Each structure stands twice: as structure tokens, then as C-alpha cells.
Automatic annotation (TrEMBL):
It is found in: Membrane. It comes from the Eukaryota. Its main location: membrane. It comes from Canis lupus dingo (dingo). This is DnaJ heat shock protein family (Hsp40) member C25. The lineage of its organism: Eukaryota, Metazoa, Chordata, Craniata, Vertebrata. One of its GO terms (cellular component) is endoplasmic reticulum membrane. The chain crosses the membrane at residues 28-46, 123-142. One of its GO terms (biological process) is protein folding. Keywords: Chaperone, Membrane, Transmembrane, Transmembrane helix.
Length: 238
């Protein structure tokens, strides 16, 4: 210390930082963090699912169908009879709303980002099932190479839709959220063939340009960009 007094405080810091450092297993910290993220995911996805159901309950098409099913099953009549003398009008209305939402949940399969939460989609289960998914992917890829690249078999409907999804650069949830008639159109136009997809892509780009050209908000934006532009500076003489 006499020869190097400037290192005194650094040694002092290193000694107590190791002496007083919390002795917590890193594996426990990682496990708790993964569990916390998984719980947050589950409640976040469930909240999105409830919002989607609430929105569908306001759409006349689905609400009318749900009310007809509830009337056929006698659910609305039972709710009114039970709450005729005991519940207020608001409570009866809330109960009827819950009945309609439950029917929509049971009859409509929501896909994409607002689908019903699945336990296997959580981060914790994804990590646990990662070896299984990896082995499944390797087996699937080997079968693909053997059946279509080596033996030259014709693509089935599932394989064609997979190639189309990859060409469109869409995730599985995004592609699943598309309507069935859209997927049928993709198959009819044989979009799994690269040349056909390029033609379809060009048509979509042209259609988008036409829509933007006729959109008044886009016209105002282009006019503003032409006349003013972003970050344009003007100087006013006093």
C-alpha cells in the first residue's frame, strides 16, 4: 500500500463487492424471469382476446346471429325470468351481454394476434418444447427434400399454402387470419409458382397505387410534400 497508495480504494472496493455480493443462483434468476414473462404474456394475450370478443359483440352481423342462437336455446328468456324480481335492468343487460359474448366465443374461431391464448405458446413452454420442435423441424425438412426435391412429387394443398406464405413473408398467425376465400384465390392463381406470384405482386402494387392516387388524404400529403416538404426553412425579412 505504501508503494501504490493510489490503488488502495480500488482494492477496498473489490474486497467488499465480493464479500457483500448477494449469493443467488443465476439459474433461479433466469427461471423466475422466464416465469414472470410468461405470466405477463398470458394476461396480455387474454386481454387482447377479450377486446376482440367485445368488438365482435358490437358488429351487427355477429351480434344478430348470437342473439338468434340465444333465443333458440332460451338463454335470453331464462336470464330475464331469473332477474325479473331480483335484478335491476342494468344487471339483466350485463347478463345478456355476457351470454352473447359466450356464444360468440364458442361459435367463432378467432385467428391471428387476437386468438384465444394457448398455454403451449408461452415463453416457458416454448423453451421446454424447443428440443421437440427442433427435431420435428429437422424431420419435416428431410421429408420435404426427399419427397419434392429428390422424388419430384407434386405439392399438396398444405405445401402450396406454405410456399405462398413464405413468398408473402407472412408469419403463420398472420396467414391464418386471412379469410378462406383469399386462400382459395391464392390456390386458383397458383401463387406457389414464382412467376405467378411475381405477376400477382405487381398487380397488388398497381392496385395500391391507384387507391392512394384516389385517396384525398394521400393527395393532400403529396401536395404538402411538393410545396412545403419536411424540414423546409423559410426566412422572413423584418
Amino acid at each position: 500500500m505504501l508503494d501504490h497508495p493510489e490503488e488502495y480504494y480500488s482494492h477496498y472496493y473489490h474486497y467488499y463487492s465480493r464479500r457483500l455480493a448477494p449469493k443467488v443462483d443465476v439459474r433461479i434468476v433466469i427461471l423466475v424471469s422466464v416465469c414472470a414473462i410468461s405470466v405477463f404474456q398470458f394476461f396480455s394475450w387474454w386481454n387482447s382476446y377479450d377486446k376482440a370478443i367485445s368488438y365482435l359483440a358490437t358488429v351487427p352481423k355477429y351480434r344478430i346471429q348470437a342473439m338468434e342462437i340465444a333465443k333458440q336455446q332460451g338463454l335470453l328468456r331464462k336470464a330475464k325470468e331469473k332477474g325479473r324480481n331480483k335484478k335491476s335492468k342494468e344487471e339483466i343487460r350485463d347478463e345478456e351481454e355476457n351470454i352473447i359474448k359466450n356464444i360468440i366465443k364458442s361459435k367463432i374461431d378467432i385467428k391471428g394476434g387476437y386468438q384465444k391464448p394457448q398455454i403451449c405458446d408461452l415463453l416457458l413452454f416454448q423453451i421446454l418444447l424447443a428440443p421437440f420442435h427442433l427435431c420435428s423441424y429437422i424431420v419435416w425438412y428431410c421429408r420435404w427434400i426427399y419427397n419434392f426435391n429428390i422424388k419430384g412429387k407434386e405439392y399438396g394443398e398444405e405445401e402450396r399454402l406454405y410456399i405462398i406464405r413464405k413468398s408473402m413473408k407472412m408469419s403463420k398467425s398472420q396467414f391464418d387470419s386471412l379469410e378462406d376465400h383469399q386462400k382459395e384465390t391464392f390456390l386458383k392463381r397458383e401463387l406457389w409458382i414464382k412467376e405467378n406470384y411475381e405477376v400477382y405482386k405487381q398487380e397488388q402494387e398497381e392496385e395500391l397505387k391507384k387507391k392512394l392516387a384516389n385517396d384525398p388524404r394521400w393527395k393532400r400529403y403529396r401536395r404538402w410534400m411538393k410545396n412545403e416538404g419536411p424540414g423546409r426553412l423559410t426566412f422572413v425579412d423584418d
